[in-house]
Amino acid sequence: MRKRSLSVRQNLLLIWKLAILLSFIFLVFALVRIHFYYDDRSPDDDDGDVFQGNPSLAFMFLVRRDLPLDFLWQTFYQNVDAANYSIYIHSEPGFVFDETTTRSSFFYGRHLSNSIKVGWGESSMIEAERLLLRAALQNPANQRFILLSDSCVPLYNFSYIYNYLMGSSKSFVDSFLDMKEGRYNPRMSSVIPMRKWRKGSQWIALVRSHAKVVAYDNVVFPVFKKLCKRRPPLDVSKGKQNLKLQRQHNCIPDEHYVQTLLAMNDLEGELERRTVTYTLWIQSATNMETRSWHPVTYNYASANPQQIKRIKDINHVYYETEHRTEWCKSNSISVPCFLFARKFSRDGAMRLLTQGSFDSSALSHTSP
């Protein structure tokens, strides 16, 4: 009986020691994660929200390689006070912006040195966006953060865009409920509840506090990286295996990540739930398997003054899944919905310069 009692005490002692050891390991792991989290952050971030100097717009270009419309942006930035903006470019690894690769000195040396290889419809797209945000957050003067593509053009002059964005205390994030397409993977539910699942355009304009949420998120991004993946295209060589592949959730990370992350952080009340970048989508449908949406590219013929005026005159956006009409406002004042547009070819962008759609008189507008 005594031996049995001794054995029980020894087992309890062993369990107690094991519990202490596991608690210690968990504590060390938590401290390491906290260390890396704060080590990855900019030392200026804690002071960014109380910055007292001249606020700056951070223009963040997510490009394949070069900037084919650099000549247009050269005109846009010309004669603008350099204290009012900063430029960051995520290009392919190793690509350098200098006098040999761009016609505009505004882009010299603006590329990220830690860029990654980006694949369309992959989590690398949102990781590149996060890299841009982290770089831009290192400058405490940056108070608004605009994500742009290599085919984007501004619709107004710098001062109008600056006043429009700085004049609003909200971020501009296209965000709506997504209940139809089956992109939500139920395996996400332990972290991302379906009621918080959102969809929208990746072209965002964030205030600094929201930029931090996106740049330093270490909860939602790992789930997207693991479970939000683009469905592979049909491959005839795979035969019947295609049936299994086509049953996968066709999740496009950059169309869901920022919207869902901000919804999960209960920040939707701090958003204008619309984008400030115009895109016209058309559907190609040769058959059900290849049906997809593609943005219209504006070339020389279609980038005419009448078309530009039509875009600039848009004052509301309708969201079918929510039966919601978003009337475009900034601080309760009605404003045009869009500040930028895509996708523009080189000759389309050139027409904006040569035919008056981009000159100072055409771009002048009462400040919001």
Automatic annotation (TrEMBL):
GO CC, one annotated term: membrane
Molecular function GO terms recorded: glycosyltransferase activity
Protein origin, superkingdom: Eukaryota
Bilayer-crossing regions: 12-32
InterPro entries in alphabetical order: BC10-like, Glyco_trans_14
Membrane-related topology note: Single-pass type II membrane protein
UniProt name for this protein: Glycosyl transferase, family 14
Subcellular location: Membrane
Keyword field: Glycoprotein, Glycosyltransferase, Membrane, Transferase, Transmembrane, Transmembrane helix
